[in-house]
Each structure stands twice: as C-alpha cells, then as structure tokens.
Specification:
Blueprint (H helix, E strand, L loop, with lengths): L2 H19 L4 H18 L5 E4 L5 H10 L5 H4 L31 H14 L6 E6 L6 H12 L5 E7 L2 E2 L2 E2 H4 L4 H10 L4 E5 L3 H9 L8 E6 L22 H12 L4
Parallel strand pairs: 1-2, 2-3, 3-7, 6-7
Antiparallel strand pairs: 4-5
Helix pairs in contact: 1-2, 1-3, 1-10, 2-3, 2-9, 5-6
C-alpha cells in the first residue's frame, strides 16, 4: 500500500477512534500523524526505538501501530477507557513498542538521549527516534538533553519536531517566539545542522532522514506541520488542541475525508 492510501485510512480511523471515545487533542494528533506513518512504514528498522515525547498525541501513535498490524482494530475502541492499554498518553507498560510513559512535556528527549548513549556504550547499532512538539521546546530539560546529545555526538539519535505553531495557551510565536529559524540557529550554535521541511511531504521526510551529516552529528529535523491537517475546519485552529468532535463535526469531517481520492 502506498503512503497516500495509508494516510487516508489512518486519518479516517483516527477521527473515528477519537470521536467514539469523546477525546480531544485531535489537532496535534493530525499534525504528527504523517511523520509517524512515514517513520514506521518507510524508514525505521524493526530494532529501532521510538519515543513520543508529545504524549498527548498518543492516538496518532496507536493508529500508526494499527496501520502496521501491531494493534488490532477492536482494541482501538478501548482508547482512553477504563482498563485499556491505549491510555490518553503512552502507557508505562502494556505496549512493547512504547519504552516510556510520556506526556509530561520535556521528558521524552532526555529519555531518548539516555537510551542512545546506552546503546552506543553497549555497541548496539539500533537508533533512537524522538518526536517533540514545538511548544515543548520551551522546556529547559529539552535544551539540556540537546546540549548533552551534541556534546557526546550521539549520531544514533534522530530528533524530530512537530512544528504546528500552536500550544496549550495560544500560538508558539505569541507565547515564546519560538519557531523553526530560532530553533535551527540554536542547533547551529552547537555545530549541529537542523533541516527544516514540510512535515506532511513524504519526499521531504525521506530526503531529510537520509541526507548525509557531518561526522558524529545527530539528525535534527524541524517539521513544519498544520494542526488539524486534513480536516479543513480544524486546520490551524486553537480549539482543535482541546475539544472533542461533536456529532455534526464528525459527520462533516468524515464526509470530507470520504471525498478524497480512493
């Protein structure tokens, strides 16, 4: 199945899962979904480790695992419910593809950096991938982990930022002024290049993930994304950060997705 077909199927199932569970955070899940799908279907190896630092996008991770046949369709109906393995943030145990419980923002990259260092010391060739939110870049723990990773030249670490431009209290520019250019400049100050790409473009993702790097450099990619991507009335809207879909909104979103090319 090609990437476009996987993406269409995943978006539809993500909306259904969130609607049936009456759970919000749909906008940030849709902004991250293409990145996750590309990593799992076209780039990561079986032994690689993925850390979802922006834990409130756990739904996108579960849908990605489902698209790979690693979760059954029926289990998606348990999302965010009592006794589920599929909690609102990645769980501490229960899913072999989830190494850490995350979602207290700022913790994912430090954990991923520690894993990458540990694997290098053990001469283990596996890579560690970590996806952060752009609002999360404001956390000092992320900068400490980034400096640590640069200093120790953790070339087995791949850091991606879901830059959808919004966070809990407004746009990232309004809250802190943080954006792709300032983040890339900070990375450059440590001698590490940062690619800035369209995070919904599989070709751009492929090129950024496979581009040659200086000796010892970790791979850093800022992905410009759209909050609520694929559902026009949710795109670039602050309320898609929190609110679940109403019945009317779900019907409209489903109809819009059904009009996409098969």
């Amino acid at each position: 199945m090609d990437f476009e077909a996987i993406r269409r199927q995943a978006r539809r199932r993500l909306l259904q899962m969130h609607y049936e569970s009456k759970v919000g955070h749909i906008g940030g899940n849709l902004s991250a979904l293409d990145i996750l799908l590309f990593l799992y279907h076209h780039h990561m190896q079986r032994e690689d480790i993925f850390v979802l630092s922006k834990g409130h996008s756990a739904g996108a991770l579960y849908i990605t695992l489902w698209s790979k046949g690693l979760l059954q369709d029926g289990e998606l109906s348990t999302f965010h419910r009592d006794g589920t393995r599929l909690s609102g943030h990645p769980p501490a145990q229960g899913l072999p593809q989830v190494p850490f419980a995350t979602g207290s923002l700022g913790h994912g990259l430090p954990l991923a950096a520690g894993l990458a260092m540990g694997y290098r010391l053990q001469k283990d060739a596996r890579r560690v991938f970590c996806l952060l939110s752009d609002g999360e870049i404001q956390e000092g723990s992320n900068w400490e982990a980034l400096w640590f990773s640069c200093h120790h030249a953790l070339s087995n670490l791949v850091l991606l930022v879901d830059g959808n431009g919004f966070q809990g209290f407004g746009s990232t520019k309004e809250v802190s002024g943080q954006g792709a250019s300032s983040f890339a400049a900070m990375c450059a100050s440590q001698g590490m290049p940062c690619a800035v790409i369209d995070g919904h473009d599989p070709q751009a993702l492929a090129e950024a993930l496979n581009a040659p790097l200086p000796q010892g450099a970790l791979r850093i990619i800022w992905c410009n994304t759209v909050k609520g991507k694929g559902v026009s009335f949710m795109e670039n809207r602050m309320d898609s950060h929190y609110l679940p879909l109403t019945e009317e909104q779900y019907s409209a979103a489903r109809a819009a997705l059904e009009q996409e090319a098969p």
